[in-house]
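Q: I have 377 residues here and want to know how they pack in 3D. Can you give me a structure?
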Amino acid sequence: MQNKNMSTTEDLPVIGVLGDGQLAMMMIQAYQDLGGRAYVFGGSDDGPASTVADKVFIGDPSNLNELEDFFNAVDVVTLENEFNDSELLSAASSRCATPLLPDPKRFGLIEDKLSEKRFFQELGVSLAEFFEINSSDDLIDAPGYLKIAKGGYDGIGTYKVNNKADAIAIYDTIKSSGVILFERTIEFEKELSVIAVGNKDELVFYPIVETHQEHGTCRYVSFPAGVSNAVEQQAQTQVSAILAKLGTSGLFAFEFFLSKDGQLIINESAPRPHNSGHITLDLTDCSQFENHMRAIAGLPLRKPQLVKESMTMINLLGTKNGVFDAQEIVDNVSDSESSITLYRKQESRIKRKMGHINIWGQDQQQRAEELVRTLEV
């Protein structure tokens, strides 16, 4: 990849990462390990990514002038999350002649939950029943979820309802939050995650993993996922079709439900590295972060190879509000068959993601459960 801004001695582009959280931090670290430089655009100079970036830009992602300053300083831009305005990003990219990957014109198709589900529906993949809510008259008397279409994550913006009375009460409190949709509850056996990284020439997959949720937040991830090769191949086939239609470069994560009768039902996607992929830092010889940055930089992708037979990743979620004692966490995780990554956050909040631990070897499930039960984060 060459453009007007190319400036690195190794002919690697300077990559700009829009967002300064832990995903951006691990993306930048992976790219620096490849010999590249990465700048970050965030709201302050103390976000996790700002502590490792080669240069920090502080600004507002809704301000076109500030975005242009950032786009002009780098060779290519990628995203930590999909919550920004795709049209604004497209304008900044066009004005500065700086590519943004994934292409905002393409990820705009899946940048909110409603447009994403409509896009998937057009491709003929299996989905839970859903529809847009424009007034309380649209609500039905059935168990399901009311969801704010844009900006929700880790259960935020998603509300479980048991009947129409529940739905009306919740809808009245959130109807000013933007586009709202209803999704009917489905019975499922497992929640699964598939990560794929592509460019114009190739597409590589990471092994399918099982995710385990607690109150809408991923608590831990396990490999193997306990599904057949046929199920994994079916998921990859669906993902391949979706990415072929999107036709852009970068990493995409897809969440599926596996129903009790063996049907795969797609839930949602993310056009960037994903929490379920943190397990790849120790499970495979090339992490999700490295391959994503390879795709953005125009480098050949690596087909990830397993280096462990099994693994469990647990999220370190805040259990209290206050100062975070990172050393105490490290001291309490002294297992030789584990790896801890902390996100350089100084303040803990209840349910805030403060880090993760990958665990392998004997009795890993029991060891993971013990840490979840006992760690004060």
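Q: Anything worth noting?
A: Residues 229-246 form the longest helix (18 residues). Confidence is low (pLDDT under 50) at residues 1-9.
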